[in-house]
């Protein structure tokens, strides 16, 4: 597992998104394997996902659970900009779980969602530093647990889509069970080249990106330099 300093160096070097082998995408897990697939070709950068998430989950200002970063990307025709959503990657090998001293952060066996038990959390914020994606937003007063995406677990449990997916005007966000070969997310990663962020960190993320142009020099690694990388 890479530490955060090493990952930020990797980010500065541009090696951010890695093409994921189809065998890894199709690997079955016990229960469901809930995942999100972003089609960056359809993302307008409107931030409706960030706003709807904040409203749905009543998050404090500055502690949003999902963000859209602007990136400079090197393509075969030159540099261009790209809107890249980023949030908790619901990893199969989550660093945040391993550092929690009281096991308040854990991964649900039935669907793979990484959640925080707010009643057990002692607000130590160790998970904030451990997350390589900067996906956890700490409470500066240390009076409450960190904020992070949990796929709107209350909505999913009721058979609804996460708020960000339901309100995405470009239909760039797709959500479902990768263990179901007939789900839309399974079809998308099967029919497109799917990339994951910081795949070399060993976290085995379940957030994937499609519609990305190939790097002109390396078709397995996409060079992506963030114009905005918030912590």
From TrEMBL:
This protein's record includes keyword Cell cycle: no
Cross-referenced Gene3D superfamilies: 3.30.70.20
UniProt keyword list: 4Fe-4S, Iron, Iron-sulfur, Metal-binding
Coiled-coil segments on the chain, per record: none
A Pfam family matched in the record: Fer4_11
Ranges of residues in domain 4Fe-4S ferredoxin-type: 34-63, 79-110, 112-141
Protein name as it appears in the record: 4Fe-4S dicluster domain-containing protein
């Amino acid at each position: 597992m890479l530490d955060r300093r090493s990952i930020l160096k990797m980010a500065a070097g541009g090696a951010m998104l890695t093409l994921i082998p189809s065998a890894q995408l199709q690997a079955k897990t016990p229960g469901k394997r809930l995942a999100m697939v972003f089609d960056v070709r359809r993302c307008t950068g409107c931030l409706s996902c960030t706003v709807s998430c904040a409203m749905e989950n009543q998050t404090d200002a500055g502690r949003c659970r999902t963000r859209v970063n602007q990136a400079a990307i090197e393509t075969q025709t030159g540099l261009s900009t790209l809107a890249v959503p980023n949030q908790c990657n619901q990893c199969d090998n989550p660093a945040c779980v391993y550092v929690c001293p009281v096991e308040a952060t854990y991964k649900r066996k039935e669907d793979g969602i990484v959640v925080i038990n707010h009643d057990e959390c002692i607000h130590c914020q160790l998970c904030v530093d451990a997350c390589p994606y900067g996906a956890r937003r700490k409470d500066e007063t240390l009076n409450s647990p960190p904020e992070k995406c949990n796929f709107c677990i209350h909505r999913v449990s009721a058979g609804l889509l996460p708020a960000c997916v339901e309100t995405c005007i470009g239909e760039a966000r797709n959500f479902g069970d990768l263990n179901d070969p007939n789900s839309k997310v399974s079809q998308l990663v099967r029919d497109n080249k799917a990339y994951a962020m910081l795949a070399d960190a060993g976290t085995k993320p379940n957030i994937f990106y499609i519609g990305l142009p190939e790097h002109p020099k390396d078709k397995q690694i996409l060079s992506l330099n963030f114009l905005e990388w918030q912590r």
